[in-house]
Amino acid sequence: MWHREWLYRLRQTPPWHTFVLWTVVPSLLAGLSFYTKKGANPASQLALYEPIEVNTADSLILLALPGFTPYRVSRLLQTRRELGSLWDMEEVEILLDSALFHEVSSFLQVATDSLPAPLNLNQVDSAALVRAKLCRPNVARKVVRYRMRIGGYTTWSQLDSLWGLREIERYRLRKYTFLGRVSAPSYPRLNINQATAEELEKLPGIGMKTAERIVRYRSKLKYFVSLDQLREVWGLREENLRKALPYLWVGQPTQSPLSLRRSSVEELAAHPYISWRLARFLVRQREQWGSDAPIPPSVWQSWLPDSLCSKLIPYLQGE
């Protein structure tokens, strides 16, 4: 057989030929394999192509970069979705760790569009911060509310103390805003029976959640008849209410009172001042009255408990 003849010739080969065959040739093959693997490195392959534009690259392209894990890619895409495009390579470094950034920075680029004009952080409102893409809406409200609480920012450390502020938002606020003169706030007087939650939120002492609670409580009452009823709103502290009271007034009711002749038990019990027991009692009294004529105030007011009579009179009618 041919292989036996080949082995016989190998035995007859001088020793130096054997050395070359079993040592030098495998070493050359190993070196060739090493350089082939080195050429397959993603970083080496990326150097042959155009740099990747961070603001337009999709998740598959970003995942092909060395060191880009699904978590880093999802965080970058979330930032693009919430704050718009990235503005410079420093923002890319903020989203990545420094070691990874220096490794892949030569393969990335950021196409910078028009940048926002510097804003006075002590005068700008939350809507302007969101329009400028400096931070998310909930963070913008925190920035403005905290400014009102402390009377204006004097140092950047006050801004850094805000909870929930991301590193890239802190970077943008520091770079594209300045701590200018604190403007004296001016607040309009609002009709508590017509003001929206957005309008109430701008008053001192009233935040976003409190403004929403005021509007929800007003819808249950149908209307306010006194500013003292704001003390019944859950979560509105007395010191905050005192700050807002000078800018509120009670206008005419926008809805009609509850009709004791036509309202059901469920409609009566939906009012904050009327319990289910009292609602059923009022319906029974109405049925016993029996007449189709309107119930005189002297009659239906006698049906009310003494403790609730003064509070319920503005919200009921006998027609």
Characterize the structure shown.
- By secondary structure, the protein is mainly alpha-helical.
- It has five domains: 2-40; 52-109; 119-178; 190-249, Orthogonal Bundle (DNA polymerase, domain 1), CATH 1.10.150.310; 258-317, no CATH class.
- Helices cover 51% and strands 5% of the residues.
- It contains 18 helices and eight strands.
- The chain has helices at residues 2-12, 15-39, 42-46, 59-63, 70-83, 89-95, 98-104, 126-131, 137-150, 156-160, 167-176, 197-201, 208-221, 238-244, 265-269, 276-289, 297-300, 309-312, and strands spanning 52-53, 108-109, 119-120, 177-178, 190-191, 248-249, 258-259, 316-317.
- Strands 1-2 form a two-stranded parallel ribbon.
- The longest helix has 25 residues, at 15-39.
- The chain starts with a helix and ends with a strand.
- Residues 34-48 have low confidence and may be disordered.
Compact summary:
By secondary structure, the protein is mainly alpha-helical. Helix content is 51%, strand content 5%. The strands form four sheets. The chain has a two-stranded parallel sheet with strand order 1-2.
User: Strand tally, please?
Assistant: 8
* Gross morphology: elongated
Side by side, the strands of the main sheet go 1-2
Total domain units: 5
H-E string: HHHEHHHHEEHHHHEEHHHEEHHHHE
